[in-house]
Amino acid sequence: MRALVQRVSHARVTVAGRETGAIGPGLLILVCAMEGDTGAEAEILARKIAKLRIFKDAAEKMNLSLVDTGGAALVVSQFTLAADTSRGNRPGFSTAAPPEEGKRLYDHFSDCLRAEGITVANGEFGADMDVTLVNQGPVTIWLDTAG
Asked: CA 130 to CA 60: how far, in whole Å?
């Protein structure tokens, strides 16, 4: 699985003008299930993100995790993280998991974050979403369970 994690002061997702998820301080997590991924990858990724030390401590050092700060996560499906741009100018997405499997793993990933004690809000899988955020820092981290 792949994820792009952004530390945010707040973030929200709307679909056709309807808010589907919003958080205050925490992480916006754009996530993509890749072909061949299993629930194990979702569990590993959720555990890693929950404990990723990218929040400032009292000494202003990135030393605290989402678990430590009590922040929330806004999880948004984004199959375009599977983009292959190695040939030509039009990205290919054939390495993304098929939609049904992608949704199952997206839901499982969200459940795994909740199991870590994280408050989770979600986008709407497969929908055309508007994502609004304020990236704090800015801090943006790329994670991939394949490497």
From this structure: 32
